[in-house]
């Protein structure tokens, strides 16, 4: 594998002081958040595509996360909002059955309807707690939510076409994201497969979320629901539903979203991010650093385990030396929903840390630490997810109490100022590679002001501000939907390109 | 009782042609709807105070009505939004226990928390189907919704103060509406009582609705929840929680919200609008006159019975000659929630009418017709609540399908034009009574452009456009929170006043 000379880049950065490129105008403004979401309720990791994490303090006591506070993780930018104008005409292909054809949302609405509650959770939720600094959005607890989903069973749809063919081993769903030109579709297409048994047992196509038409940001007008499985499997803007003999050939299935050791590349030999293991965490009071009054307090949080439900949640105020049972708060919405729980404690003045440990109906106990893995997927370790609560005798007059109504900081700044970039010579060479030389060139997918690039497929680099090691690894090996450039760029080209992205985003 | 000479008024109206008062400027604009609500989802019956009815076609298949689509019926204008700024400091008095005192929302949040699902329904829901034209907002089916409510049990709160006193017979909650000056508080104050047994069994003080902090329009930061009881009992912006020996002396309790024969005045001898009887209706497809495609269709609707839950819903396509069982759609959220149901039918080209009949767990069957009553309260007759579905072979290209995403008409027009009023001589005398002579004068409570009145307590008369008989009855007998003026105004004064309101609102 191609090796990057880290020291060379660092050296070139050191030499860069004082060298300025022609100033490039910088004028960006925060986009309006989708679906009535308020900036105060989210950590905005990225905007094109959206990566919106629910603030820990914005989760409620109730079991359903409202649309206005539901996290968003889109792999690619959304299709245009106009697809909702004639939502009922949205159609998708059905393949891999005795017969084949297509159906529209209107067709689905004349079929047997069901509503189920299910947790949606990004595979990378909890990544922020990884010590090896994996790439990707640094989600803490808020890339998860629980909703009521309405639609029809995949089994009923396949039945309409005579049932699945004999070779069917997977249910494969294809998303309707607009793919950019010049990119190998299989590298970026969102297409995921799950075992066909799962597909026939409880998967659904859904058009309603929490009683409202499925919003665009959440895959509307129609998405696949794979109850109890990680978010990536719940393909949005569904255009094709297939019973297939093999897993999808898309990168996102073949090598992406695989649990693999740190440093390893993903492949079919690694477990795919399917069923969500048992997990729990506290959401309040006192999340996001807000002080609370010392004394009696009611802690609350969520607990779930895909396809199983949870039997019990325990809470510890001494880092797991002793545990106490928590009480369930509301109705049980089924094995794929989460349950909210509470426990009364007494908070002493100062920092109080509480951890929680859920046990599911199959007897699985939430581990103290999850197994570290390359991308920081599936973190469910209880030690990482504890809540620190700062208790005080008197709440400050101005600092508001933990009520959920007070705006908090967001990560994206609403900047509209001119900016000049100071780039090293190496970085200046890298800029040409970024904008023209690489195939496809980086501007096709990325937004980066220093390159005047406005691509919408990959992360906005101005907002991501990746570290040098992160850039190098992504360029050489690829990451997520991004192809590897290690084969087409020389060592010094990779260095120059990386230097440019690094310097251009500081 | 004072008798109004209807013929005299009609005569004076006829004589009014050509008589013009000095033009009065007319400039109103629709206010922004609260809580992310969209005009397309509501029939806006009034804006100050809000009377927002969920469009029939805006209900979903799922059991929970999202905040963005939840109806609003406020008896008085809301307190200022600033009360949410320090929500946790919101406090209320506790009375009628061995001890007494006050608690804040922060105190409640340290107590045992629970979440329950309950239907909220305005007593007047279904009033629009009454043949005797009762006064009040003309709700069809949409003054109802089902939500998840989080808070603490009233019983736990009373327990904190040593439990209720021996004489306690009622739980009485007092709302935090700002009362206008010059009005006898007991005439307009929102204070309601329910049996103390009910209060201790399952009533709650709630601060969270569907996972979000309780919005101002729905009583935030804190309201009383009386599960399974009509909306009026669920006092908003709660300032006092009391165990009382007697029912509240407020008019809204003593004579208002009573089931009484047409023409009778309300009193303690009449049943109060407490438990909601068994009821069901269809919400789609094809609500609000939208054509649907002929052929196979899945009808869906809601069914509930306060404190009991429903055992069964039957559907009839022949006006009740024959019935078929419907299927439940989603999870059962408890005895006070509603359940959504569906049934597959085949729609012929043309008009199709379907009615539904729910049976609750106590064996109560939804009646064909509710008993007519003065205010059109508690209408649960299945004959009135049927859904007419227009089915066509080909949907028109432009007319959109029933997808819930297309704006529909709302009742309030966004007018900003000059308007002149043509008033009869009688009406001109009435204008002086409206603005000055009556005690308190009508402008204190009502908005009426022709009087340059901007009162916010009672209905906006420009929007209500009451009929003559409706005006006369309200003036003479009072209605809702409005006092009776029959004792202080002469017969000709009532006629003049009524003529003015009538002519000034055409």
UniProtKB/TrEMBL annotation, chains A, B:
The keyword Ligase does not apply. SUPFAM superfamilies: Cytochrome c, E set domains, Oxidoreductase molybdopterin-binding domain. This is Sulfite oxidase. It comes from the Bacteria. Keywords: Electron transport, Heme, Iron, Metal-binding, Molybdenum, Oxidoreductase, Signal, Transport. Its cofactor is Mo-molybdopterin. Residues 425-505 form the Cytochrome c domain. The lineage of its organism: Bacteria, Pseudomonadati, Pseudomonadota, Gammaproteobacteria, Cellvibrionales.
């Amino acid at each position: 594998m191609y090796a990057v000379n880290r020291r060379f880049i660092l050296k070139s950065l050191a030499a860069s002081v004082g060298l300025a490129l022609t100033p490039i105008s910088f004028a960006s403004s925060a986009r309006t958040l989708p679906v009535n979401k308020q900036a105060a309720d989210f950590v905005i990791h990225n905007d094109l595509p959206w990566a919106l994490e629910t603030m820990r303090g914005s989760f409620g006591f109730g079991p359903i996360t409202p649309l206005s506070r539901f996290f968003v993780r889109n792999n690619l930018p959304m299709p245009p909002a106009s697809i909702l104008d004639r939502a009922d005409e949205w159609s998708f292909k059905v393949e891999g059955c005795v017969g084949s054809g297509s159906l529209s949302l209107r067709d689905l609405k004349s079929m047997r309807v069901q509503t189920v509650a299910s947790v949606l959770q990004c595979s990378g939720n909890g990544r922020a707690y990884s010590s090896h600094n994996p790439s990707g959005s640094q989600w803490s607890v808020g890339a998860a939510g629980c909703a009521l989903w309405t639609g029809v069973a995949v089994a009923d749809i396949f039945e309409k076409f005579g049932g699945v063919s004999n070779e069917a081993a997977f249910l494969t769903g294809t998303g309707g994201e607009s793919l950019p030109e010049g990119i190998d579709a299989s590298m970026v297409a969102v297409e995921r497969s799950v075992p066909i048994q799962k597909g026939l047992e409880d998967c659904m196509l859904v058009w309603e979320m929490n009683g409202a038409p499925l919003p665009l940001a959440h895959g509307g007008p129609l998405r696949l629901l794979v109850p109890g499985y990680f978010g990536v499997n719940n393909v949005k803007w569904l255009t094709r539903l297939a019973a297939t003999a093999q897993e999808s050939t898309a990168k996102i299935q073949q090598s992406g979203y695989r649990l693999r050791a740190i440093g390893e590349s993903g492949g079919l030999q690694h477990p795919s991010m399917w069923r969500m293991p048992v997990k729990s965490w506290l959401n309040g009071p006192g999340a996001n650093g807000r002080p609370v009054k010392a004394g009696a307090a009611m802690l609350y949080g969520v607990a779930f385990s895909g396809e199983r439900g949870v039997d019990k949640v325990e809470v510890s105020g001494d880092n797991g030396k002793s545990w106490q049972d928590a009480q369930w708060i509301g109705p049980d919405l089924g094995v794929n929903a989460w349950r909210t729980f509470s426990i009364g404690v007494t908070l002493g003045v100062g920092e109080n840390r509480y951890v929680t440990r859920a046990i599911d109906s199959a007897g699985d106990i939430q581990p103290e630490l999850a197994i570290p893995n390359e991308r920081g997927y599936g973190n469910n370790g209880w030690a990482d997810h504890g809540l620190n609560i700062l208790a005080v005798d008197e709440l400050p007059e101005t600092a508001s109490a933990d009520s959920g109504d007070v705006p908090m900081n967001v990560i994206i700044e609403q900047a509209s100022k001119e900016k000049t970039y100071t780039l090293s010579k190496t970085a200046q060479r890298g800029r040409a590679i970024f904008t023209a030389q690489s195939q496809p060139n980086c501007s096709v997918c990325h937004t980066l002001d220093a390159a005047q690039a406005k691509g919408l497929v990959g992360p906005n680099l101005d907002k991501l501000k990746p570290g040098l090691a992160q850039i190098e690894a992504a360029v050489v090996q690829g990451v997520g939907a991004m192809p590897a450039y290690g084969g087409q760029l020389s060592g010094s080209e990779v260095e120059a390109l990386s230097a440019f992205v690094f310097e251009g985003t500081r």
